[in-house]
Amino acid sequence: MKKFTRYRAENSPQAWLFLLPSLVIIAIFNIYPLYQTFKLSLYKGSLNNLTFNGFQNFQVVLQDPKFHTALSNTALYAFIVVPLGLIIAMFIAVTIYEKVRYKDFFETIFFIPYLTSIIAVGVVFRFLMNGDYGFINHLLSFINVGPINFLDNPSMSITTLIIFGIWSSLAFNIIILLSGLRNVDQGYYKVADMFGASKLEQFIKITLPQMIPIITFLSIVNFISAFKVYAQVYAVFNGKAGIADSATTAVFYIFNKFYVENRYGQGMAAAVILFLLILLFTLIQNYVLKRISK
Amino acid sequence: MKKAYSILAYTFIIVMAFVTLFPFVYMILASLMTFQEATSIPPTLFPNEFQWSNFTQALAQAPFDRYFFNTVFVAGASTLGTLVTSVLAAFALVKLEFKFKNFILMGMIALLMVPYEVIVFTNYQTIAKFGLLDTYQALILPSLASVFYIFYLKEYLTSIPLSYYKAAKVDGCSDLEFIWKILIPMGKPALFTMGILSFINGWNAFLWPILVTNSKEMRLLSNGLSSFATESGTSVHLQMAASTLTIVPILIVYFIFRKQIIRGVVKSGVKG
Description:
CATH class of the largest domain in chain A: Mainly Alpha
Radius of gyration of chain A: 25 Å
Low-confidence stretches of chain B: none
Mean pLDDT of chain A: 86
Number of helices of chain A: 12
CATH superfamily of the largest domain in chain A: MetI-like
Low-confidence stretches of chain A: none
Helix content of chain A: over 70%
Distance between the termini of chain B: 40 Å
Number of strands of chain B: 0
Order of helices and strands of chain B: HHHHHHHHHHHHHHH
Helix content of chain B: over 70%
Mean pLDDT of chain B: 88
Distance between the termini of chain A: 57 Å
Shape of chain B: globular
Number of helices of chain B: 15
Radius of gyration of chain B: 23 Å
Number of domains of chain B: 1
Largest sheet of chain B: none
Oligomer: heterodimer
CATH architecture of chain B: Orthogonal Bundle
């Protein structure tokens, strides 16, 4: 008996034709550069004259005090901006959702910083934070604080960066948290009201547990982008890493090694280290948050 | 007690809204001040007379009109390219069966985890090797396709029943006709959101333009503004005018398409 080959109308090799444009671009600009990054991290010399260098680049980078500063600045930034940004955003989102009329109006306002060019906003913040005529110092003078030298004092740089980082991270968090709050089953609150649970109890016992997946998602996304912080530094210190490089971060370090000093191998070694750190941290965080939610 | 809570809530939310909005409001106000007003101690809040000439002065010092055109052109071309490549790829991934499909999907998911900052520098080398530094091609080419948007569109198109495709096939419809007549009209909301988000991303992009452009003529608004801020030194009123030129167009787009943009960001979960 003749075997029927399984015929399916949608078994179609022409799919490759449709995938081709995307695959070409992705291969050249996503896959090849990844391979190059790993390759270059093991080589030294100029691009036309590469010599294999083993793990020397990694040794140099790992022993470079500048890289230590960059990493500790990045970690400090991430561990302050992410939790604070999430907590403040949570307060704002819950207030909008539960207490305030004109929800759409406030949602619209709080989302604006997400869309606006970080460079342009940075230029404005430099103006507002100016030590002499800045508006923030003017406001602070009413409560007898300052004047604070936000921009030109090495020991203030990270604080300035953190303030700017929190300000610019709120928009995304608020929007995502609000959408999460809207999806919490209203039935739970009705039952809780019937049993006379206070609003605070309801928040801790109902809202928070239901929001765990969203908070997990947000903290991972926020941590990843905090580890890659670069735009905020560039914007608020006008293309520098703060006065005397006091606010240098991991990506800034890579940028300088690669683009300014042309030490490609070392720059890419630092990039590989950052990549691995981000991966590792994401996995740990995923694991910990899963344990907590159980 | 309830009333006290309510007052507290409103105070809190209004203070936070003020903190969010004030930089933009003050940017626009200061863009209309004289230099003396902008740098006075204590600071001026409202300009005595609107100095519209700040804008012409900023334009005279740096070619912001050119930056503006470049930005619209580059963001527009990238968006159009992304839309076309993503529709084609998403069609293949949703409606067609082929060998190695799962392999392609897994590969793409893996690529999503690679930070942009890890590949952007070696991309710069690729562009340099092609001899394309300081050209529009350099600015546009890498963003002509995006794994992220292919997935975004794929999720959306999955909801279109496969039987539509089969029926179209039975009626002698070619794949391209199916994409053009059924997939695109049905995917319009997703395509629209994707288009706006990709355009805004292109508008605000700055690491890539800094790397691949060096002449003034090729700069985009973001890196043009950043170098203007360095060159113009203490002329903060002009810097505020230039920032206003960069920010206000996006604000207008936002106020028109507010709903679509917010929904799109919530659904896709891209942190800017």
